[in-house]
Task: inverse folding
């Protein structure tokens, strides 16, 4: 489940779309568990573009955790900013009018 590399134009577009989003998943003191990965995977399946929040009490570096989540869910890491990461994974099963269309 490998996500293709995003161009800088795609990243700028997705960052604009993700700006107003609220985090839909949270990684806390227990770190990256199977339950967290399953939740992020499910949210990506539904929304394609997802913000996740990585708490300060998380056992590992926030950038490192964001990269691991992206790799293990097949998503592209669009941005990490502070304790928030933005992930994108296209879903070809969604209706055409509900999908994110990259420029």
Result:
């Amino acid at each position: 489940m490998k996500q293709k590399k995003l161009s800088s134009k795609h990243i700028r577009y997705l960052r604009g779309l993700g700006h107003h989003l609220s985090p839909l998943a949270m990684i806390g003191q227990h770190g990256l568990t199977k339950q967290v990965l399953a939740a992020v995977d499910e949210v990506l399946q539904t929304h394609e573009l997802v913000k996740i929040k990585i708490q300060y009490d998380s056992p590992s570096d926030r950038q490192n955790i964001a990269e691991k989540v992206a790799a293990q869910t097949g998503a592209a890491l669009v941005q990490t900013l502070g304790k928030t990461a933005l992930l994108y994974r296209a879903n070809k099963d969604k209706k055409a009018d509900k999908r994110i269309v990259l420029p």
About this structure: Strands lie at 25-27, 49-54, 76-81, 84-88. The longest helix spans residues 34-47. The chain is about 35% helix and 20% strand. The two ends are 22 Å apart (CA to CA).
